Amino acid sequence: MEQQLNEHNKQEYPPMHTAEHILNRTMVNMFGCGRAVGAHIEKKKSKCDYLLPEMPTQEQMQEVERCVNEVIERHLPVTFDYISKEEACAKFDLGRLPDHVSDTLRVVHVGDYDDCLCVGLHVKNTSEIGRFQIVSYDFSDGRLRIRFKLVE
User: How far, in Å, CA of 72 to CA of 78, rounded?
Assistant: First the structure.
């Protein structure tokens, strides 16, 4: 649940934030892990942390990058709707929601690829993102950190 609460009210960069959603779904699909346990999303460069039992191979990391770009190139619409907290319980992990969250939650849909509870800013279509590039990654104590950027 990326940026569930925009606590710092900093200006988000919608292309990068939407790319984070796609990266998260790709990691879940490829490794069966959860979505990022930590993320720092900025315009120039971002990072996400994932809990994994072992270090992915270089080939697997290249496949992550390829898959994210393949989704971006599908020019998927990015839409949202609202559901009740009760409905969300059946579909999402609500463990990271703040206690004072409303009974109505926003779900962001990246085409047919990803659905996620989120209050952040997003592009209207993945064609607005650019190309996703993994800058570097490292693995320590079961935590994979991926640093990435978007290029034109």
Answer: 11
